[in-house]
Amino acid sequence: MNLVELTFVSHCMSRLNSALASLGNRLELSHSRANSSAAHEPACYH
């Protein structure tokens, strides 16, 4: 593997990692939002 391929692969991996990180943050945000709304629901119904 030459330096150009190595640079390209590391670039792709960092792009993939940042994409996965942003996706994970988005999922975590929606999950916590769903949990908070579920926690507030019984109080609304009573």
Description:
The chain is an all-alpha fold and 46 residues long. Helices cover 93% and strands 0% of the residues.
Can you give keywords for this protein?
46 residues; mainly alpha; rod-shaped
Please describe the topology of this protein.
Layout: H1 3-45
State the end-to-end distance: 65 Å
Biggest β-sheet strands, sense, barrel: none
Helical content (DSSP H or I, runs of 4+):
over 70%
Instruction: Categorize the overall geometry.
Output: rod-shaped
- Residue stretches low in confidence (pLDDT < 50, at least 5 long) are none
Structural class: mainly alpha
Outline of the structure:
Helix content is 93%, strand content 0%.
